[in-house]
Design goal:
Number of helices: 1
Radius of gyration: 19 Å
Number of strands: 15
Order of helices and strands: HEEEEEEEEEEEEEEE
Distance between the termini: 33 Å
Structural class: mainly beta
Helix content: under 10%
Length: about 220
């Protein structure tokens, strides 16, 4: 009887740990997640401001909502982002999912940042290059000799397609980020906590981005 109870306990432990293995894309059922933020860009009244303001800067060109997509083309000499105030409890485990299409010249890339504090670029960054490469890193200009970027983690998506939308997921679990592309695990990166309440969508030089949706969830 004692061995039977031990076997049951070990089995239950195995099932629970397997169910919530952060490296498994489907480990967390959608109905167990807690929605923090969602934008499918079907509502043209959704406002993404210019950097830390709620006003869009027309000198850099404006984004638009086309067929339920957030669309922006950056033909200028520097990166450009549009931000929104979203409060995330960074002590909890969470994940961010963005469905996006990136086109343009050379190393055209989309930029997503979260935990942004201010205009000093203090933020977490996720770069999605048009050829399927990704980069994740952080900047903290408030630290002495703060680096920007900090340590950069790079990977390539084997499921990437340049003719359609690709879905990227950044999953924070305890002290690490787990990165997925189209449901396939790519790499891990160290979790670095920032306290800012801004998330931003941006584009590098000579880049057009089309964002289908953006979701942020707390994990169970």
């Amino acid at each position: 009887m004692r061995y039977a109870l031990l076997l049951i306990t070990l089995t239950v432990f195995h099932v629970c740990t397997a169910q919530y293995n952060p490296k498994e894309y489907k480990a967390y059922p959608d109905d167990k997640k807690e929605i923090v933020f969602f934008d499918d860009f079907n509502d043209s009244t959704s406002v993404w401001g210019d950097t830390m303001t709620a006003i869009k800067e027309t000198t850099w060109g404006d984004y638009d909502f086309i067929d339920g997509k957030f669309v922006y083309t950056n033909n200028n000499s520097g990166e450009k982002g549009f931000c929104k105030n979203v409060s995330i409890d960074y002590k909890r485990n969470f994940e961010i999912t963005i469905s996006i299409n990136v086109t343009g010249k050379d190393r055209a890339a989309a930029i997503f940042s979260w935990g942004r504090v201010d205009e000093l670029l203090t933020s977490n960054y996720f770069i999605m290059v048009k050829d399927g490469k990704i980069e994740i890193f952080n900047c903290n200009k408030h630290e002495a000799n703060g680096q920007c970027p900090g340590k950069v983690k790079k990977a390539y998506s084997p499921t990437f397609s340049d003719s359609t939308y690709n879905t990227y997921t950044i999953r924070k679990f305890e002290s690490e980020y787990y990165i997925f592309s189209n449901g396939v695990f790519l790499t891990k990166a160290p979790y670095y906590q920032l306290t800012g309440e801004y998330i931003c969508i941006g584009a590098g030089v000579n880049t057009t981005i089309k964002v289908d949706y953006l979701k942020i969830y707390y994990l169970p």
